[in-house]
Amino acid sequence: MEKQLKALADANRLILLSCLKNKEVCVCDLVDVLNISQPAVSQHLKKLKDAGIIKERKVGTWKHYSIVENLSPVAQQVVDELDVLTKCDCGGESCSI
């Protein structure tokens, strides 16, 4: 529970979860949303993954992320409160699903 609460206690990670709320998204689009470096986005994603909140799927050289199906009740409640961000659509040729 501590890992999940720490992972959820960051504004950038909440934005990432808003992007992932309804669909899988490529890491390249998450970089564009946060407007920070790819390594910084990867660190945020790692914390969410290590906390059991998101999962990844590799497609070629890209990784696609989504929220796990069975979140803890606390994490699920946080995700339920987030608005969906629509600017997270995977649109690049190199990262198409």
Description:
The chain is an alpha+beta fold. Helix content is 48%, strand content 14%. The chain is built from five helices and three strands; from the N terminus they run H-H-E-H-H-E-E-H. A hairpin with a 2-residue loop joins strand 2 and strand 3. Helix 1 packs antiparallel against helix 4. The longest helix has 13 residues. The termini are far apart.
Gist of the model:
The protein is α+β, with helices and mostly antiparallel strands and 97 residues long. The chain has helices at 2-8, 11-20, 27-34, 38-50, 73-81, and strands at 25-26, 54-59, 62-67.
Write the layout of secondary structure elements.
Blueprint: H1 2-8, H2 11-20, E1 25-26, H3 27-34, H4 38-50, E2 54-59, E3 62-67, H5 73-81
Antiparallel strand pairs: 1-3, 2-3
Helix pairs in contact: 1-4
What is the arithmetic mean of pLDDT? 88
The percent of residues in helical segments reads 40-55%
Q: Globular, elongated, flat, extended or rod-shaped: what is the shape?
A: globular
Largest pleated sheet: 3 strands, antiparallel
Spatial strand order of the main sheet? 1-3-2
Estimated structural class: alpha+beta
Distance between the first and last residues' Cα = 32 Å
Features:
three-stranded antiparallel sheet, 97 residues, alpha+beta
